[in-house]
Amino acid sequence: MGFIHFILHNLLEIMIWAIIIGAIMSWLTAFNVINLRNPVVGRIQQVLEAVTAPVLAPLQRFIPPIAGLDITPIFALLILQGVQRYLLPYLFGAL
What angle do CA 32, 33, 36 make, to 5 degrees? Predict the structure, then answer.
């Protein structure tokens, strides 16, 4: 069971970092610091969007943007970190 815990913990960690990097990239794009027409940057953005969409899309249905600002990544990070820190140890501690 330790290996499964290790895999799930690290998958959650990767998702957390993907959300953080995606949010930073969206800010940099909004302020014209990076250009999505650059093939490398555009591909990174596509990969990050594909990875984070399954987590962010359900939240975006329930949490509307506030003053044009999408705050769903904040809630997604809170939920993922809660699962990682509290739910996983509880589940695997009981087994």
Answer: 70
Residue extents of the structural domains in the chain:
2-94
34-75 pLDDT per residue, tens: 999 999 999 999 999 999 999 999 999 999 999 988 999 999
Maximal CA-CA distance, the chain: 50
Q: What is the mean pLDDT of residues 11-19?
A: 97
What's the rounded Cα separation, in Å, for the pair 53 and 12? Answer: 14
- Give the C-alpha separation, 72 to 53, whole Å: 11
Rounded to an integer, what distance in angstroms lies between the CA atom of residue 23 and that of residue 73?
Answer: 7
| Structure tokens that stand for 29 in this block | 């794009």
* Exposed / middle / buried, residue 71 (Cβ in 10 Å: 0-12, 13-18, 19+): middle
SS3 31: coil
